Amino acid sequence: MPLVLVVVAVILSVMQNRAKAAGEVDFVSRTAKGAVSIIQTPVAATLDWTGNFFSGIVSAPSLNRENIRLRARAAELYALESRLAEEIEKNERLSQLLKIPDQKERNKVAAKVIGYDFINQRLQLNVGTRDGVKAGDPVIIPEGLVGQVVEVGSRSSFVNLLTHSASSVGARVSGGSVEAVGIVKGNGSPTLLLEVFVEESEIKTNDLLVTSGVSAVYPAALRIGIITNVWLDRDYGLRKAIVQPFFKAAALREVVVLTR
Amino acid sequence: MTRAIFSTFVWLVIAGALQQAVSHRIAIGWGVPDFLLVFAIVLSMQRNGDAAGVTGFAAGVFTGALLNEAMAAFAISRMAACMVASRIATSLLDRSPLNVTIVASICTVVSAAVYLFVFPFVVGPPNIGAHLADTIGAAIYNGVIAIPIHLLIQRVAGTAARG
Predict the structure, then answer these.
(1) Which residue of A has its CA nearest to B76?
(2) What's the angle, vertex CA A69, arms to CA A64 and CA A70, rounded to 5?
(3) Do residues A54 and A164 both lie within one domain?
(4) Cβ–Cβ of B76/A28 closer than 8 Å?
(5) A160: Cα within 13 Å, side-chain hemisphere
(6) Is A33 near chain B, with CB under 8 Å?
(7) Domain carrying residue A12
(8) Which residues contact B2 (CB under 8 A, 6 or more apart)?
(9) How far off is chain B from A82, nearest CA to CA, in Å?
């Protein structure tokens, strides 16, 4: 009996080796694997589930600690992500400030807006006399003129925006054949009022207004705003216009003070 | 006879499934349990020499088939181990758990020794050191798992006999 089995074993082994050499699986191996796999699959699935269940129980305290740690880490990362977005935005704004062209006999002092008084149309900046800032210095952004420094401390200063009711700037139309000269005044609203004194001046909607350069305060050719509406004030014989400035006061974060 | 062949086949299929699904999960160092061998040994302890030989042969064929190699080496070595198990079992006064453990361990060593002898003629010389370490680990592990397997087979056989 054992001898017969040995012969059968050798025959089976030869069949197996031949099948392997041909890149196939012999009948006996295939059948055995098929029979075993019927039980093996549910056994393996049960063991996986059981293993996961018990490892979950055993490692519950460490998982809880890890969960708390990961939540804290996620909160840190969310804060960091938010801060990063803010820094990128700030970087873009500062890059724009750097593009402001140099002005004759003026120094550019970058400043951070640390306060905004909506009622009085005023900004507070983080620069003062220590930085060379003086009352009367114009304040600009890359898009154009913002206002004028009116009060200066050693480390901070206050700026009247162009929209402040006490603000007035000499202005002209940029690029026109006859350059109209007038005064742009603030009136406490988000827009400005242009009063033109030169009768023959031709101003129209969408004209770009820039500083006239006549005053000693503002350098010439700083952008002020765009004319949005023009009319004739017959009582005073003046042409008047509504001007939309280039800044939104609440959105100002960094500005440049042009110091002497 | 038919019932014995069928029950042997079922036990070996179960053993093969455990071998594939469980043995690598509960391996400790060199100690990797060989469910097919242990089931065959425990079954052989309840059978005469020829029946034990057939059981070992079937277990070897299963092992070789699942590994897709050395079918003859496995069949012959396990056949020898199971015949030894049957022979020892007939000389034992009882089949206490300790005796089952000892027989399973001894027969694991016998199987490994025969395998080592047959193997070179089949696929080439094995690494003796690694084979020895595997054998010692498997002998200890097989001895331990032989107890629950022996109890399980006895219980099922008892239930079947009563039914």
Answers:
(1) A6
(2) 95
(3) no
(4) no
(5) 18
(6) yes
(7) 2-58
(8) none
(9) 46
Q: Is A18 on the interface with B (CB under 8 A)?
A: no
Q: How far apart are CA B20 and CA B68, in angstroms?
A: 13
Residue A7 touches chain B, beta carbons under 8 Å: no
Burial category of B129 from C-beta neighbours within 10 Å (exposed 0-12, middle 13-18, buried 19 and up): exposed
A22 in contact with B, Cβ within 8 Å: no
CATH fold label, B2-157: Arp2/3 complex 21 kDa subunit ARPC3 (1.10.1760)
How many domains, in total, are found in chain A? 2
**Domain assignment of residue A89, yes or no:** no
pLDDT in tens, A37-89: 888 888 888 888 887 787 778 888 888 888 999 999 999 999 999 999 988 88
* Domain range summary for chain B, segments of one domain joined by +: 2-157
C-beta atoms of A28 and B71 within 8 A: yes
Q: CA B107: distance to chain centroid?
A: 8
What CATH number should be reported for the domain holding residue A148?
A: 2.40.10.340
Find the CB nearest B17 among A29, A31, A40. Answer: A40
A176 pLDDT more than 80: no
**Mean pLDDT of chain A, nearest integer:** 86
The closest alpha carbon to A9, from B130, B65, B158, B66, belongs to: B65
Three-state DSSP class for residue A152: strand
